[in-house]
């Protein structure tokens, strides 16, 4: 039996003060509504078909690309046709990094074409490429020990995946570390736990104190092979060619649509994901699925005739992958409203089996949300974990807005930032469950008698 919802808050103190009669009334009301939303979400595969249409039609949606802007145009038109309130594209200037043609070839000890992806933000090589001996290292400390052998070489970081947070440091900082040791280029073993010779791209950075060198990712299989070759005493040589470059910033937009609150329209629950993706695959898990899940959640709330007390706003942020310009622009453009942002929910962890939410906020808010998630028990998404948020809502969380992340259990990093991130990897039922949990959470927080405390 589901627990009752302690949602009656004292408006003056914003502390939880349960009243048995009103508690029972509120719990009964939201239990029935939650079941209606869940039933509607699970009834068909409408959300998956919308995701398939978005990803199949426009493909990748990299910042600065025509495909991103066409996708945004389509989303805005569909949202207006859907009858949402205040549909708009909020302007954002975004960076334009162009990958260009790129190749990596093993020259010695045998010829072999190596699947590779340049890292986002990397410079290119000279027109005739870079051909150099490779030094394989297993960590930054290992590079420090072998620094006298790095000069004039291509340094390869062959670092097995442990966690994303730990291993991604080599993608982000590898070029700087290699340049400090005198290397002419940097390669990283792709940041992921599994591979079918699928390289993973992603953002990297430079340090103004050292020379910029080209940086790219190769597959886990090839990184391990090159490491074995070096261990056997064989000379490993690679020819790297990259046309990567930055061009001038270009205009883009955050996609915004609302269901306006009938009692406190100025108070907002915001949820969404990022519309942009890397320039490989379709960006289905990362993060078209998160955007579509939030969009469909809002559509279901509207379709069922539910009118929350407060406004629910869906945002498809732009430029999460290589600049976070959308998240920071949203913070700046809505700075005067952030005191009335009750909760920000981000879905950017892949569309796999949902298990619940992560939350960062006050203990009093957590106590309320712990009861709200119990409405999701029937779909197995009733966990409330410590720590929640995301890259796009991070800027407003820093201004005091409570943050929540949509938590799933799946093989996200198998597909993350690869050509394999396509819609066939998204299970329609997992997406439907994600729609249901976002709809229930957003609606209840937007409609409960008093605002979520900070």
Task: Describe, in plain words, how this protein is organized in 3D.
By secondary structure, the chain is α/β, with parallel strands linked by helices. It has 2 domains: 20-96 and 248-447, Aminopeptidase (3-Layer(aba) Sandwich), CATH 3.40.630; 100-243, Glucose Oxidase, domain 1 (3-Layer(bba) Sandwich), CATH 3.50.30. 34% of the residues lie in helices and 25% in strands. The protein contains 12 helices and 16 strands. The chain has helices spanning 20-42, 46-58, 66-81, 140-145, 164-180, 220-231, 284-303, 325-333, 363-372, 394-397, 412-415, 428-447; strands spanning 85-98, 102-108, 112-114, 116-118, 130-137, 154-157, 185-189, 215-218, 237-242, 245-259, 264-274, 310-317, 341-346, 353-360, 383-386, 403-409. The chain has an 8-stranded mixed β-sheet, with helices on both faces. An 8-stranded mixed β-sheet has the order 3-2-9-5-6-7-8-4, sandwiched between helices. Strand 11 (264-274), helix 7 and strand 12 (310-317) form a beta-alpha-beta unit. Residues 1-25 have low confidence and may be disordered.
The CATH top-level class label of the largest domain: Alpha Beta
Task: Indicate how many domains the architecture comprises.
Answer: 2
Strand arrangement, major sheet: 1-10-12-11-13-16-14-15
Low-confidence stretches: 1-25
CATH superfamily of the largest domain: Zn peptidases
Radius of gyration, rounded? Answer: 24 Å
Known CATH architecture of the largest domain: 3-Layer(aba) Sandwich
The CATH topology annotation of the largest domain reads as Aminopeptidase
């Amino acid at each position: 039996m589901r627990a009752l919802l302690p949602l009656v808050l004292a408006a003056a103190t914003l502390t939880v003060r349960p009243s048995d009669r009103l508690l029972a009334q509120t719990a009964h009301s939201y239990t029935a509504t939650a079941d209606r939303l869940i039933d509607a979400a699970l009834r068909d595969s409408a959300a998956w078909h919308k995701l398939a249409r978005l990803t199949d039609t426009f493909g990748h949606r990299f910042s600065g690309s025509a495909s991103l802007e066409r996708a945004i145009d389509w989303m805005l038109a569909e949202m207006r046709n859907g009858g949402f309130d205040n549909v708009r594209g909020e302007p954002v200037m975004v960076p334009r990094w162009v990958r260009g043609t790129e190749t990596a070839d093993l020259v010695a000890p045998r010829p072999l074409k190596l699947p590779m992806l340049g890292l986002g933000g990397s410079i290119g090589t000279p027109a005739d490429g870079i051909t150099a001996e490779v030094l394989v290292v297993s960590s930054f400390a290992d590079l420090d020990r072998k620094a006298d052998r790095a000069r004039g070489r291509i340094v390869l970081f062959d670092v097995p995946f442990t966690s994303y947070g730990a291993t991604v440091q080599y993608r982000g900082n590898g070029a700087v570390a290699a340049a400090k040791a005198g290397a002419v280029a940097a390669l990283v073993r792709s940041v992921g736990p599994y591979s079918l010779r699928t390289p993973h791209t992603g953002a990297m950075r430079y340090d103004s104190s050292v020379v910029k060198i080209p940086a790219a990712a190769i597959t886990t299989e090839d990184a391990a092979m090159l490491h074995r070759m070096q261990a056997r005493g064989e000379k490993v040589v690679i020819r790297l060619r990259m046309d990567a470059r930055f061009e001038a910033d270009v205009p883009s937009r955050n996609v915004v649509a609302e269901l306006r609150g009938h009692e406190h329209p100025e108070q907002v629950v915001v949820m969404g994901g990022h519309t942009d993706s890397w320039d490989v695959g379709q960006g289905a898990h990362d993060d078209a699925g998160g955007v579509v899940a939030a969009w469909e959640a809002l559509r279901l709330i509207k379709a069922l005739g539910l009118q929350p007390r407060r406004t629910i706003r869906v945002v498809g942020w732009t430029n999460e992958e290589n600049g976070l310009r959308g998240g920071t622009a949203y913070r700046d453009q809505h700075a005067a409203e952030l005191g009335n942002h009750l909760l920000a929910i981000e879905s950017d962890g892949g569309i796999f089996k949902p298990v619940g939410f992560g939350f960062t906020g006050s203990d009093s808010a957590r106590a309320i949300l712990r009861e709200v998630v119990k409405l999701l028990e029937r779909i197995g998404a009733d966990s409330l974990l410590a720590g929640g948020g995301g890259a796009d809502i991070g800027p407003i969380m820093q201004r005091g807005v409570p943050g929540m992340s949509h938590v799933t259990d799946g093989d996200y990093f198998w597909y993350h930032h690869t050509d394999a991130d396509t819609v066939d990897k998204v299970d329609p039922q997992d997406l439907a469950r994600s729609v249901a949990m976002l709809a229930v959470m957003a609606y209840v927080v937007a409609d409960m008698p008093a605002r979520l405390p900070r």
